[in-house]
Amino acid sequence: MAASVALIVLLGLISYRLFSWMRLPGFLGVLLLGMVIGPNGTDWIDESILLVSGDLRKIALIIILLRAGLGLHRQTLKKVGMPALRLGFIPVVVEGFVVLLAAVWLLDISRVEAGMLGFIIAAVSPAVIVPKMLHFIHTGKGADKGIPTMILAGASIDDVVAITIFSAFAGLYAGSSISMTGQILSIPIAIVTGAMLGIAVALLLLFVFQKMNVRHTKKILLIIAASILLTTLEDYLKNIVPVAALLGVMAIGFVIYEKKPQLGITLSGKFAKIWVFAEILLFFLVGAEVNFLLAAEAGAVGLAIIGIGLLGRSLGVLLSLLGTNLTLKEKGFCIMAYSPKATVQAAIGSVPLAMGAPAGDIILTIAVLSIVITAPLGSIAMNIMGNTFLKGKSLD
């Protein structure tokens, strides 16, 4: 296992550097590396790493969400509050149900199976979006209108909505007496409980930091450990109260920065250094989940369903941005920023197949294809459009 980690880091750094040199997003090189030397490629990696892939990806995702929380500022959030909230709900719901209808029509599968597919595909990838938005926040691109912050906040809610509605369709397929209406109503509860738990954890950590002379390195470890426990708590509470744990993780970073801005800046810098390793690990493992053969099997029908879904998402983004002062080009950037798929599709794409759904194989195939198509193209589009269409840093 140690040799495999060394190989991932060494080749990952080379791939990242090579793609950056070609003016492509560095993580794409790492993603492709995972596809090539992972279990669906040349299989050079010890299977023991793949057995804990889910946990490792969760830790990496926690690190980037903590960075995202530390990059959110209350004044900017107030400015983009309602559009961000709409972005968290409207695009994912529109895309999910558009894919449902398209899948029933093109694949001739049941509505429940099509619903599972729809809300697997509909979730955006925070692993792709968050680093890009943090980069634009750091460089001041779009800061005058709070565009990167709006997308960050919206994307964190988007995944909660997608996974919750997917769970409702999965429950319907399994024959449980689950209520679709009840599941949908649980979304705001999950958001509130996740945020409240995140705030409580952040205040507790700040109390510990104040009472004890803890070095910044140990503070980082305590924050990561507390965040992991928070996400674990979500599993224990799922039958009692829904919790959007990843949103809570972002809230931890947000509260720390709000209460102790200087500490927040220092910790953000340290998390940025940790992210160098975590990013390689995350995207390699996501790539290792991708099966080229499955992606190829999806063919034109799979591409059509993904394309139709993205058109629905684009419409949802435009509806969410009604009444804002964004230009047409800035709205185009928001559409592209809301297109990449990766982590959620890799995590739950195989669930219908494991449940024994007749369409489980095609659902997994299209989920894989959505990663292969949207992660690289969405990231490249974000780079180009962000640097071209977003204005520089606001003077205030």
Strand content: under 5%
| Count of all domains | 1
CATH fold naming: Na+/H+ antiporter like fold
Helix count equals: 17
pLDDT < 50 runs, ≥5 residues: none
The backbone outline, from C-alpha atoms, is: globular
Number of strands: 0
Any overview of this molecule?
- With 396 residues, this protein is an all-alpha fold.
- It has a single domain, classed as Na+/H+ antiporter like fold (Up-down Bundle).
- Helices cover 81% and strands 0% of the residues.
- The chain has helices spanning 2-21, 26-37, 47-51, 53-70, 74-107, 111-121, 126-139, 147-174, 180-211, 216-237, 245-259, 261-289, 292-320, 328-337, 343-348, 351-354, 360-389.
Question: Quick gist of this model?
Answer:
By secondary structure, the protein is mainly alpha-helical. The protein is built from 17 helices and no strands.
Record the SSE blueprint.
Blueprint: H1 2-21, H2 26-37, H3 47-51, H4 53-70, H5 74-107, H6 111-121, H7 126-139, H8 147-174, H9 180-211, H10 216-237, H11 245-259, H12 261-289, H13 292-320, H14 328-337, H15 343-348, H16 351-354, H17 360-389
Helix pairs in contact: 1-2, 1-12, 2-12, 4-7, 4-11, 4-12, 5-6, 5-8, 5-13, 6-8, 6-17, 7-8, 7-17, 8-9, 9-10, 9-11, 10-11, 10-12, 11-12, 13-14, 13-17, 14-17
